[in-house]
Design brief:
binds adenosine-5'-triphosphate; 28% helix; 8-stranded mixed beta sheet; Rossmann fold; binds magnesium ion; alpha/beta; 8 strands; 5 helices
Length: 157
């Protein structure tokens, strides 16, 4: 599905809807250029899960945990050089446990990409504040999540 965000607030509220509908073990991979809005969307998702801390993009850590309705593991893999470095982080515990994994720059995972996940793409459109957000499910659980979010398809607000 495709969702058009007209503002940062729109992206936050769409993220919130995602966060309200995730289940333990869900994996959300956020694709998009620098500044496309991945962290903003992650912040919205966390908000929808009841996380009270503000999600940020730390420079030197690859993963930050947050506590919400379920544990939230926010990965920013921009600085990951080799996928195998993920083993040093015990990433499997976070990906395949009872929390929610939200991953920026999942391209860096190479062959360690999970089999089932929601692929979320963000791209800037013709105006500085307009973003196209696409959801593509991999696996039946994520097809189900997409169906739940579909009523919101189209323009934001
Ligand atoms: N519709 C929109 N949705 C999200 N962010 C928007 C939107 N319009 C403008 N912005 C701005 O774009 C920027 C997005 O920054 P953000 O940190 O979320 O990007 P990012 O994709 O996480 O980048 P990086 O790859 O560097 O981590 C913010 O400054 C935000 O205010
Ligand atoms: Mg970011």
């Amino acid at each position: 599905m495709i969702w058009i965000s007209e503002s940062e607030e729109d992206t936050l509220s769409f993220g919130k809807r995602i966060g309200e509908n995730v289940r333990p073990g869900d994996i959300l991979l956020l694709y998009g250029d620098l500044g496309s809005g991945k962290t903003v969307l992650a912040r919205g998702i966390a908000c929808g899960m009841g996380v009270s801390d503000r999600i940020t993009s730390p420079t030197f850590t690859l993963m930050n945990p947050y506590v919400g309705k379920y544990p939230v593991y926010h990965f920013d893999l921009y600085r990951l050089i080799r996928p195998e470095e993920l083993y040093d982080l015990d990433y499997e515990e976070y990906f395949y446990g009872d929390g929610i994994a939200i991953v920026e720059w999942p391209e860096r995972m190479g062959g360690l990409l999970p089999e089932e996940y929601m692929k979320i793409g963000l791209s800037q459109m013709d105006s500085a504040t307009r973003r196209k957000i696409t959801l593509e499910p991999f696996g039946s659980r994520f097809e189900e999540l997409e169906e739940v979010l579909r009523p919101y398809e189209g323009i934001g607000h």
